[in-house]
Input
Amino acid sequence: MSWFSQSSNSSKDVPNFYPVTSYLSGFGELSSADTAWANTSNKGFQTETQIWYTVLEDGTWVMVQLIWSYVGIFLVPATTQMTFKVYNPNTKQSTWRSINASGAKFDKQNLKTDQFEIRHTGSPKTEESYHITANLDKGVTLDLTFTRPANAPGFKFGQGAQGGISTFGKDRDESKRDGFVVHRFHPLAQSSGTIKIDEKPLDARGEGMFVHAIQGMRPNLVASRWNFAFFTTSPGAEDPKLGSVRAVQMEFETTDDYGPKGAKSGRTKVNIGAVYSTKASENSVLTVTGQTHSPASSPDAYPASLTGSISSATHKQAIKDKETGYAVPSSIEFQWSAPKEGSGSEKSIVTAKVTQDVAGAIVGEGGLIEKVDVLAEIPYVIRKGLAAVTGTKPYIYQYHNPATFNVEVDGETTAVKGYLFNEASFVSE
Output
């Protein structure tokens, strides 16, 4: 399907969206292929990202993002981009760099370009690490390693080849679907190494995570909204009962093109999450959550969950941002609830909640790091094409704050101190 085409699924009363959270459940083991670069260039518009996040001892937040994009036009080559950002909540200072790479050579999880290199070692069943080296310009160099311990396996939502995959189109078959979206996670990793900014070294020892995502369709047709949350205890501040704790959550809301009864049948939310603890579980996985939020007009259109799971990101007291025109939350509440992984009983439930009490639209207030103008950060050819064809102007609101993560395990509630990084993304009205 060309990236210039519109959705062809206009038949009424026929589903043209299939949320993974209504058809699969729970922890899905990752294969090596799951985190290898797909670089699909024969199925229309593709956006593939790999992102590493970490929080350092003083609360400093770091992100390294790789984006591979193909617009689905034979004569237009794919682009590879690295975006790097670091933010110190104590000084309110941030550093941002974004470069379009040349000479990109992909090999499974590895990537080498003229400007940076990613070297992967290990496997899903052993310890894994990603070594990132980059010269982004004269002022910023990276030498970072993200390591996932062997006893903290990554996950996708649901087992098997279809784990994690939500599909668009009347036919779910890979050869006939309009597109798909998938996320695979390493929620628990440690970072190490050095970041140099203007020759000043920054020790990158921290508590991190990794996510590999693919949007196999034009982005403005995949989702109208996104929510993302990453909670972690800080280095050297493990919780006495739970140890090092992670919680991740990814949610997207469909556009009007796709729904339970075809186009204009209501927007559906798909929310996937997980809670990890190094002390409360043998393999660190406390629970994996997933929930389908059917349109308000058809609340029973999809099964919400196969296990009674709750996985939600709730925006509260929306206010209009005059700069972007979007209704942004004054606060956000994230919830997780699902059977404890490995317990063998649906009665053994893990529940958790973390709230960003103050959000809003003013940079520097409520932990708002930046309002990211997405079209300004992606390669020129994709930016011009998307703006011309769709008329959308997506923004990502990035927040980073100290937070308390309340989690109940085996009937005992623990208030875990740490940091919450979260994003509220608006693609279209």
Summary: Helices lie at 219-222, 374-377, 380-390. The CA atoms of residues 256 and 313 lie 20 Å apart. The two ends are 24 Å apart (CA to CA). The first strand starts at residue 17 and ends at 18.
